[in-house]
Write a structure and sequence with these properties.
Helices cover about 45% and strands about 20% of the residues.
């Protein structure tokens, strides 16, 4: 059925519900689960100091890695293991490209998460993934 499951996560409780669903599927059919977090590009108008920009990016990357570590911890507490991957770019496009390149069988995600700009455009990532994915997409509400 589905041997590889991709779960985009953003650290929100909603995205953890999608991870729980993927872990349940993993238990039932032995699918391999990958949690992916996309670091969206930071809109920088003007930062005079390259050092300040580097510090911002380092903090952002550290926060993103913590999100993936938490996902690994959730799986471990259930006696399962998952793969994690940190990506960078436009969330919707990056998820679709990664899914296509790595040949995932299904994407499990939430309809609304918590993007870096706190749902500036509600559901825009899930909408893009639903409409452009070449594999099935399961939306968790």
């Amino acid at each position: 059925m589905f041997s590889k499951v991709l779960v985009p996560v953003d650290g929100s409780d909603n995205s953890h519900r999608a991870l729980d669903t993927a872990l349940l599927l993993s238990e039932k059919i032995g699918a391999k689960v990958t949690a992916v977090h996309v670091m969206e590009d930071i809109p920088v108008l003007h930062i005079q100091s390259e050092k300040v920009l580097r510090e911002l990016l380092d903090a952002y990357k550290k926060q993103s890695q913590l999100i993936l570590s938490k996902c690994s911890g959730i799986a471990t507490r259930k006696g399962l293991s998952i793969n994690t991957k940190l990506l960078q770019g436009n969330a919707g496009s990056t998820i679709l490209d990664f899914c296509e390149k790595k040949k995932y069988g299904i994407i499990i995600m939430v309809s609304r998460g918590m993007g870096k700009f706190i749902e500036l455009v509600l559901g825009s990532v899930s909408s893009k993934v639903i409409h452009h994915s070449s594999c099935p997409v399961m939306i968790i509400r």
